[in-house]
C-alpha cells in the first residue's frame, strides 16, 4: 500500500492548478538543478546538488546514474540511504496529479539498494535495505529488505537469505 496524502481540487484538472500548490519559482529552480544533475558526470557533485538545492536526503557513496529524473515539484520528499545505486534514466516521483485530486507521498530508499535502469518509483513507497529492483520495474508498493522484484506490475522474484 502506498502512503500518499490526497488533496481534492475543484474546477479544471489538478495539473492545471499546479501553481496554486507549488510556487512557480520553486519549479523553475528545481528544473534547473535537476537538469544539471541529470548530466553531471561527478557523483559527489551530483549528490551535493541534490542535498543543497533540492533538500533531498542522500546518503554517502550513493550513486545516481546518468539521466535519473527526481521529482520536479517535491524532491525534498525523497530519502536515499547509503551506498545505493539508482540506474540510468530511472524516475522517482513524490506526486501524482489526477483529474479531481493530487496526491503527495514520501519515497524512502534504504541502504545498499540497487535500482535497475529505466525503473519508476511511485509516490508513497519504501524500498528496504539491500533490495534489488530489476530494470524497467514500476515500484507501486513497498519492497521489503533483501527482496528482488521485477516487472510491471511489480512482483517478488526472490527473497534473499542471510
Number of helices: 2
Which architecture would the CATH scheme give at its second level? Answer: 3 Solenoid
Strand coverage percent: 25-35%
CATH topology: UDP N-Acetylglucosamine Acyltransferase, domain 1
Total beta strands:
17
Q: Oligomer, anyone?
A: single chain
What can you tell me about this protein's structure?
The protein has a single domain (5-156), classed as UDP N-Acetylglucosamine Acyltransferase, domain 1 (3 Solenoid), CATH 2.160.10.10. It contains two helices and 17 strands. It has helices at 24-38, 43-53, and strands at residues 5-8, 57-58, 63-64, 69-70, 78-80, 85-86, 91-92, 95-97, 101-104, 107-109, 114-115, 120-121, 126-127, 132-133, 138-139, 147-150, 155-159. The two termini are 26 Å apart. Keywords: Repeat, Transferase. This is Acetyltransferase (Isoleucine patch superfamily). GO terms for molecular function: transferase activity.
In brief:
The protein has helices spanning 24-38, 43-53; strands at 5-8, 57-58, 63-64, 69-70, 78-80, 85-86, 91-92, 95-97, 101-104, 107-109, 114-115, 120-121, 126-127, 132-133, 138-139, 147-150, 155-159. The chain is of the alpha/beta class.
Amino acid at each position: 500500500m502506498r502512503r500518499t496524502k490526497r488533496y481534492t481540487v475543484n474546477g479544471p484538472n489538478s495539473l492545471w492548478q499546479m501553481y496554486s500548490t507549488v510556487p512557480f519559482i520553486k519549479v523553475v529552480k528545481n528544473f534547473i538543478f535537476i537538469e544539471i544533475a541529470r548530466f553531471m558526470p561527478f557523483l559527489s557533485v551530483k549528490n551535493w546538488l541534490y542535498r543543497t538545492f533540492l533538500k533531498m536526503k542522500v546518503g554517502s557513496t550513493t550513486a545516481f546514474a546518468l539521466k535519473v529524473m527526481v521529482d520536479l515539484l517535491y524532491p525534498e520528499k525523497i530519502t536515499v540511504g547509503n551506498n545505493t545505486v539508482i540506474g540510468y534514466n530511472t524516475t522517482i516521483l513524490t506526486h501524482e496529479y489526477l483529474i479531481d485530486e493530487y496526491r503527495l507521498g514520501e519515497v524512502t530508499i534504504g541502504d545498499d539498494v540497487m535500482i535497475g535502469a529505466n525503473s519508476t518509483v511511485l509516490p508513497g513507497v519504501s524500498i528496504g535495505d539491500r533490495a534489488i529492483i530489476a530494470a524497467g520495474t514500476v515500484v507501486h508498493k513497498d519492497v521489503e529488505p533483501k527482496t528482488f522484484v521485477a516487472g510491471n506490475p511489480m512482483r517478488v522474484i526472490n527473497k534473499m537469505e542471510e
